[in-house]
Amino acid sequence: MVVFAGFLSNCLIMGVARSFGIFFLHFVHHFEETSSRASWVISIAMATQQFMSPVGSALGTHYGARPVVMVGGGLASLGLLIASFGHSLLHMYLSIGLLTGQSQLLSHSLFISLSLSLSLSLSLSLSLSLSLSLSLSLSLSLSLSLSLS
């Protein structure tokens, strides 16, 4: 069950970050902004995840992994829902950049720390879950890219 949950978490949450290049050109054309300003959307999300990962690990240690990951999933849903109503890049910075970035830190950092602290067989299965989720998110992004073009 842990492997399946890790697979879904990494496929859905990290798949958004990995497939941002598909939406990049649409953001540039839709908001009529430069590519450097549009690239800040995913940069803020990744910076939030990377710099705040110790906070996510501390929250997971204090409250437990399950409630923290559930809050992370809720933040991811909220961030993407708010982004769908966005009318400017500032909305994208706040919704995808901050909210989705925080959900990535809460879910992904706990998944990685959980896989490092468990036994070898479970760590191997979690690693398999990570590799499968990355390959599935790559195939989904390729199919989405083909359907948008």
UniProtKB/TrEMBL annotation:
Membrane-topology descriptor: Multi-pass membrane protein
MF-aspect GO terms: monocarboxylic acid transmembrane transporter activity
UniProt entry keywords in alphabetical sequence: Membrane, Transmembrane, Transmembrane helix
Superkingdom field: Eukaryota
Coarse class of the protein's main subcellular location: membrane
Regions crossing the membrane: 6-28, 69-93, 105-124
Protein's cellular compartments: Membrane
InterPro entries: MFS_trans_sf, Proton-linked_MCT
GO cellular component: membrane
Name of this protein: Monocarboxylate transporter 13-like
Species, as recorded: Callorhinchus milii
